[in-house]
Design brief:
Blueprint: E1 2-6, H1 10-20, E2 27-32, H2 44-49, H3 64-67, E3 70-74, E4 78-82, E5 87-90, E6 95-97, E7 100-103, E8 107-109, E9 122-123, H4 128-137, E10 143-147, H5 151-161, E11 166-171, H6 183-195, E12 199-202, E13 206-211, E14 217-222, E15 227-229, E16 232-235, E17 239-241, E18 257-258, E19 270-272, E20 277-280, E21 287-288, H7 293-307, E22 320-325, E23 328-334, E24 345-351, E25 356-363, E26 366-373, H8 379-387, H9 411-418
Parallel strand pairs: 1-2, 1-7, 2-3, 7-19, 9-16, 10-11, 10-16, 11-12, 18-20
Antiparallel strand pairs: 4-5, 5-6, 8-17, 13-14, 14-15, 20-21, 22-23, 23-26, 24-25, 25-26
Length: about 425
C-alpha cells in the first residue's frame, strides 16, 4: 500500500501516526510546500518575540520521518491531483502515484482587495517564514498597523511588542477577539492592551495603503477617513481552507472539503483532515471547519487509521481558542455567545480588580460553552464536560467557583473520570 500525504502540519502528522498504528510496512510519502520539518504553527508569535528557539519550534523530533518510516518531500508543492489516475503532480512536473491520499493542506490567509496591498511592507502572519521575515525587520520598524483584531492579529501584536514597535490594531467589529469572546471578556483584554501602549481602532477597516519612495508603505487610510502612519502593515483578518488542489476535481466542497465520519471525501481513496476539511461539529451536529491544532491532529489520526483499513470514526470537534494578552491568559470553547431566545442558561463571575472573568453556557443541563479570563486552571475539566455531554445539574451551582474540579462530581462520575484519560 502506498499512502501519500499532502501537508506537514498537525493533520498530516496525525495521519502518519494513524496509519502506522495499523500498517507498519506500507509506504508513506509526505509532500509539503514549506521546506521545514514539521513545526508548531501556534508558536510563530513566540518565535517572533524571541521566546522560543528554532529547535523549540519542532512539532515532532528531528528523527520523526525516519522513525515512522516516512519519505518526506519537503519544499515541493503539489499543484494538481488526478483522482482518476491516482496521481499527485508536483511543481517540478514529477508525478507521485498513490493508493490512498490524505489532503492536509491547511488554510491560507484571506487578503481583501485593498488599494495598495501590493506595496512593500505588507505581509500576512500564518507561517514560520512570515515570523522569520518580521523578526529580521523588527529592529527597523517603528509603527505597524495590524488589520484584524482576531486571534491572528493578536498573536502578531504579541510577537512584535517585545521589539518596542508602536502598534495599532484596526478591527471592524466592536471588540477584539469578537468571534471567540463576549464584550466583557474582550473589555478586560482591551484595557490591558491600552495599558501596554497598543492603540485600538474599532468599527472600521483599511480603505487604502499608501506607499512612498521605493513603493514602501508610509501610511494607511481608514474607511472612517482617519490616516495612520505605518512602515509595515500586517493583514490578519483570518484564513480560509486551501482548496486550490481540489478546484478541478470531483471532490465535493462547501466552505471546506466535505468528509464523512472517517474523514473520507466524496472520491474513493481520498481523505481530508485539518483546516481544509469540513467535518462534524460535536455540539451542532452539523459540518463545519474548525481550524485548531488539536482538532486537526484528531482528524488526521482518524483519517490515517481509516486509510490503513481500520473501522474508525471521528466523533466531532468543538471550537476552542487559547491566547494570552498582556500576560492575561484567555480560553474559550464551544458556544460562547448564545442567542438568548433559544433556551440557554448563562452563568457569569467577574472580578475586574483581579482581571478574572468566568462564563458558563448551559443548555438542557449540559455545558455547551465557556469563557475563562485570568484563571484558566480548570479549562480541561470544562472541555471534558462539553465533549462527553455530562449532565451538570448536580453541580451546576459550583461551575463558576475557582476551585471547581472532580471533587464536585457525584461519586459515580468522579470514579469514572479519575479512572480514565480523555484522548
Amino acid at each position: 500500500m502506498r499512502y501519500v500525504i499532502i501537508g506537514n502540519s498537525a493533520a498530516a502528522i496525525g495521519g502518519v501516526e494513524g496509519i502506522r498504528r495499523h500498517d507498519r510496512d506500507g509506504e508513506i510519502i509526505l509532500m509539503a510546500k514549506e521546506p521545514y520539518a514539521t513545526y508548531s504553527r501556534p508558536l510563530i508569535s513566540y518565535f517572533l518575540a524571541g521566546k522560543v528557539t528554532t529547535r523549540q519550534m519542532a512539532y515532532r523530533p528531528s528523527s520523526f520521518y525516519k522513525d515512522w518510516k516516512v519519505t518526506p518531500l519537503l519544499g515541493k508543492e503539489v499543484v494538481t491531483i488526478d483522482t482518476e489516475k491516482k496521481l499527485a503532480v508536483l511543481d517540478d512536473g514529477e508525478e507521485v502515484a498513490y493508493d490512498r491520499l490524505l489532503i492536509a493542506t491547511g488554510g491560507v490567509p484571506f487578503v481583501p482587495s485593498i488599494e495598495g496591498r501590493e506595496a512593500k511592507g505588507v505581509s500576512t502572519f500564518t507561517t514560520w517564514d512570515d515570523a522569520k521575515r518580521l523578526r529580521r525587520m523588527a529592529k527597523g520598524l517603528k509603527e505597524v498597523v495590524i488589520l484584524g483584531g482576531g486571534l491572528i492579529g493578536v498573536k502578531a501584536m504579541e510577537g512584535l511588542q517585545s521589539h518596542g514597535v508602536k502598534i495599532t490594531i484596526v478591527e471592524l467589529m466592536d471588540r477584539i477577539l469578537g468571534l471567540v469572546l463576549d464584550a466583557t471578556a474582550a473589555g478586560i483584554l482591551e484595557r490591558k492592551l491600552k495599558d501596554g501602549g497598543v492603540r485600538l481602532v474599532k468599527g472600521t477597516t483599511i480603505r487604502k495603503i499608501v506607499s512612498g519612495e521605493g513603493d514602501k508603505v508610509t501610511e494607511v487610510v481608514l474607511e472612517n477617513g482617519e490616516e495612520l502612519r505605518a512602515d509595515h502593515v500586517i493583514i490578519a483578518i483570518g484564513v480560509r481552507p486551501n482548496l486550490s488542489l481540489v478546484a478541478d476535481t470531483p471532490i465535493k466542497v462547501n466552505r471546506g472539503i466535505l468528509v464523512d465520519e472517517t474523514m473520507r471525501t466524496s472520491v474513493a481513496d481520498v481523505f481530508a483532515a485539518g483546516d481544509v476539511a469540513e467535518a462534524m461539529d460535536l455540539l451542532s451536529g452539523e459540518k463545519r471547519v474548525i481550524p485548531i491544532l488539536p482538532t486537526a491532529y484528531r482528524q488526521g489520526k482518524t483519517a490515517g487509521e481509516a486509510m490503513a483499513g481500520r473501522d474508525t470514526s471521528y466523533l466531532g470537534g468543538i471550537v476552542m481558542n487559547s491566547v494570552e494578552v498582556g500576560g492575561i491568559p484567555a480560553i474559550s470553547a464551544g458556544i460562547m455567545n448564545p442567542p438568548s431566545e433559544e433556551g440557554f442558561e448563562v452563568k457569569r463571575y467577574l472580578d475586574r480588580k483581579k482581571g478574572i472573568y468566568r462564563k458558563m453556557v448551559i443548555k438542557d443541563n449540559r455545558l455547551v460553552g465557556f469563557i475563562l479570563i485570568g484563571a484558566i486552571d480548570r479549562a480541561g475539566v470544562y472541555t471534558g464536560l462539553i465533549r462527553e455531554k455530562i449532565d451538570v445539574s448536580p453541580f451546576k451551582n459550583r461551575l463558576l467557583d475557582l476551585d471547581f474540579g472532580y471533587i464536585d462530581f457525584p461519586k459515580d462520575l468522579r470514579t469514572y473520570k479519575l479512572s480514565t484519560v480523555y484522548m
